[in-house]
Design a protein that fits this description.
alpha/beta; FAD/NAD(P)-binding domain; Enolase-like, domain 1; 3 domains; seven-stranded mixed sheet
């Protein structure tokens, strides 16, 4: 670190964590005229930029493009040869800037945000201590607010032998320059499903997904997980549901051998663990302000940490546990920045209007609660579905376009509270549903939002017709 040991620097706002949420709250505060510092122990840009959304979607794209082309008669005949892995990995390296953050720094400078590299830790009220990799110490004082934006890290379940086989997490999977011949994927959530299909399409000969629940994507509508499973099996991806892992080891050949609860074994060259995330808060000094280290930081609708006197501590993004998604963290950051600046702002989305996309083929795109969650909340919902592929716009995209479009209508208010779309490249349908839900638009008004023809958006017309309009 460039600062002298023991130096104390004062700012209006101090942010710990320079991922998307941290960058956005720092930028918002700077735009409001507040002096702002940001502390980062790894790379400016965070998990999403280097080990999450950006590299994973870059690796998924070649397989998606080929699958889309092969659905189109005349175009599929032009597809020859195998995927060029060298080009794929080169593109991924470009998109991650070869895991250097030099390109992020000019923006911080343009916003007059001061970057301190090192581990940030709360040292008391409005106080953050920073320890650099060289052992230098620095203390930062915040006149107005401290914001936690430290995100999460991959969770490893307590399976005997798992930590000794060198398991992959999302980081190893998105950094790799080699495609394993055989890949075991532990966990059938969004990360597990995306990476299973990604590596199968990039050339893994055997991919096996081990999911403890009775369906994939257990947090989404049941039909979504079923459709993804059917697509996986058609591509040669083995899906084992209700699979309980009891031990893992590497045999004499170096292969990973996973034993299941029924006594059977499955073998791979690598095992990717995608069983969830835990908050990266264990070393933040939360105990110094009366909070429990290693837990999500609970916040109110202004993103202030609850249980901390004075209202000076905020938490945005994954570390507060509300919605572990980059775009939701960035949204929360903008809200928090406005609140810190004295504006009357509230988070109205992180509990009820959470958008999410699983970039498998078929994609699973959803916003708001699923049916079961809505009913648990006491909402009298009517479920309306229509086949995504049964509109003319889908047919023009090629053959075999399938999927399901669903809306949940709160019958008492005649407004949509949740929506799910499955099918190839359905992500662009999602924002219209998000606007309708966030705006509390009655279906009688939505009926007059006419979708253009021939587009897949025509499914909105069919859904509202199915509702009875």
């Amino acid at each position: 670190m460039s600062e002298a040991d023991g130096q104390v620097l004062d700012y209006d706002v101090v942010v710990i964590g320079a991922g998307p949420a941290g960058e956005n709250v720092a930028g918002r505060c700077a735009d409001h005229g507040m002096s702002t510092a940001i502390v980062e122990r790894e790379l400016v840009g965070g998990e999403c930029s280097y080990w999450g959304c950006i590299p994973s979607k870059t690796l998924l794209r070649p397989g998606d493009a080929l699958a889309a082309t092969r659905r189109v008669p005349g175009a599929r005949e032009a597809v020859q040869g195998a995927i060029d892995l060298g080009q794929v990995f080169a593109r991924r390296d470009y998109m991650t800037s070869d895991w250097h953050d030099d390109g992020q720094l000019p923006w911080l400078a343009s916003e007059l945000i001061v970057l301190h590299r090192g581990n940030g830790r709360l040292a008391g009220e409005r106080r953050v201590d920073v320890s650099g990799s060289d052992g230098a110490m620095l203390s930062l004082r915040a006149r107005t607010a401290v914001v936690l934006a430290t995100g999460t890290r991959a969770a490893l379940p307590p399976v005997p032998g798992l930590d000794g086989v060198g398991p992959w997490t999302n980081r190893e999977a998105t950094e790799t320059h080699a495609v394993p011949r055989r890949l075991l994927v532990l966990g059938g959530g969004a990360v597990g499903c995306e990476m299973a299909q990604c590596f199968r399409r990039l050339g893994s000969q055997e991919v096996t997904v081990l999911e403890g629940a009775q369906r994939l994507l257990a947090r989404e509508e049941p039909f979504a997980g079923d459709e993804v499973r059917v697509a996986f099996e058609a591509e040669g991806i083995r899906v084992l549901l209700g699979a309980q892992l009891t031990s893992v080891r590497r045999d004499d050949s170096g292969a990973v051998v996973a034993r299941l609860g029924d006594g059977s074994e499955v073998v791979g060259d690598e095992i990717l663990v995608a069983t969830g995330r835990v908050p990266a808060t264990a070393s933040l000094g939360l105990d110094k302000v009366g909070l429990e280290p290693g837990r999500y930081v609970e916040v109110d609708d202004t993103l202030r940490a609850t249980g901390v006197a004075g209202g000076w501590l905020y938490a945005v993004g994954d570390c507060n546990g509300l919605a572990l998604l980059t775009h939701m963290g960035k949204y929360q950051a903008r809200i928090a920045g406005d609140v810190i600046a004295g504006k009357d702002a509230r988070d109205r989305a992180s509990r009820d209007v959470v958008t999410r996309v699983t970039f498998t083929d078929p994609q699973v795109c959803a916003v708001g609660p699923n049916e079961a969650q809505a009913r648990e909340r006491g909402i009298d919902v009517r479920v309306v579905r229509f086949p995504t592929g049964d509109v003319s716009g889908a047919s023009t995209q090629g053959e075999g376009i399938r999927g399901t479009s669903q809306i949940l209508v709160d019958e008492s208010r005649r407004v949509i509270v949740g929506a799910t779309f499955t099918g190839p490249a359905t992500q662009e349908l999602l924002h219209s549903a998000t606007v309708a839900i966030a705006g509390r638009m009655p279906v009688d008004i939505l009926w007059h939002a006419v979708p253009s023809f021939p587009t897949v958006s025509e499914v909105w017309l069919r859904l509202l017709e199915a509702y009875g309009l």
